[in-house]
Amino acid sequence: MDDHRALGVKEMPSDDRPRERLLRHGPGSLSTSELLAVLLNTGSVGEPVTTLADRILHEFGGLRGLMRASVDDLAAVKGVGPAKAAKFAAALELAKRVVALGPDERPRITTPEDIVRLVGPEMGALDQEELRVILLDTRNRLIRTSTIYRGSVSQAQVRVGEVFREAVRVNAASIAVVHNHPSGECTPSAADVALTAELERAGDLLDIDVLDHVIVGAHGHLSLRRARLGFKAAKENRGRE
């Protein structure tokens, strides 16, 4: 490989590229240095982008130190420069503003319509299926939303442990599951109902409530809990107060 050019994400094998892994598995699947590599996009002369990201983290003493860095501090790092420093600074400022949000400023998810308002317009326009998990705290306020699957979403292909992984990691009290039907038709399949029942059983074991499983399409949505499909009737009103 030519040592006189910047080494970027494209030079890496496709399975190892942070951006490709982010698109397949969501940002939660990447390490901090890999997320930085996605922002950097290219490395410096003779230094792969992932190595540059590791070096930046080391120079600033980790993510906490990076959060305190100024644009000038970032631009002074070899291999970064003003353009990348500006991109970094914007991303870090957004993160700071999210952290600064009080709990009352985060949306509260209690109904299928709340779920649809949060992700419905975007998911209803997708041309392939996605399954997302909405992570909620003890007051049903949004922690974050994670995309778990892209492509065919069915009981056979969805790993229950993967659905709950982020919820366990951030100590979420409950989750809501939502996936789209690109056809626009929101009628659940037998596999959708079976997956819902399996997720609820797993949630009972983990003490994480599954508030709902919502299907969205271009022209509407369907709540499997409201339709009494896959959920035990005794839990019909949980999380709805």
Write up what this structure looks like.
With 241 residues, this protein is α+β, with helices and mostly antiparallel strands. The chain has two domains: 6-100, Orthogonal Bundle (DNA polymerase, domain 1), CATH 1.10.150; 105-235, 3-Layer(aba) Sandwich (Cytidine Deaminase, domain 2), CATH 3.40.140. It has nine helices and seven strands. The protein has helices at 18-25, 32-40, 49-59, 63-68, 71-75, 81-100, 112-124, 160-169, 190-206; strands spanning 6-8, 42-45, 130-136, 142-150, 174-180, 209-217, 220-223. The strands form two sheets. The protein has a five-stranded mixed sheet. It has a two-stranded antiparallel ribbon with strand order 1-2. Helix 9 links the parallel strand 5 and strand 6. Helix 8 (160-169) runs parallel beside helix 9 (190-206). The chain is elongated, with a radius of gyration of 21 Å. The model is unreliable at 1-7 and 236-241 (pLDDT under 50).
Could you provide a short overview of the structure?
By secondary structure, the chain is of the alpha+beta class.
Strand order of the largest sheet: 4-3-5-6-7
Number of domains: 2
Distance between the termini: 61 Å
> Got a strand count?
7
The residue ranges in which pLDDT falls below 50 over 5 or more consecutive positions are 1-7, 236-241
User: CATH class of the largest domain, please?
Assistant: Alpha Beta
Radius of gyration: 21 Å
Q: What does the main sheet amount to?
A: 5 strands, mixed
Structural class: alpha+beta
CATH architecture of the largest domain: 3-Layer(aba) Sandwich
How do the helices and strands follow one another from N- to C-terminus? Answer: EHHEHHHHHEEHEHEE
- The CATH topology label of the largest domain is Cytidine Deaminase, domain 2
Shape: elongated
DSSP helix fraction: 40-55%
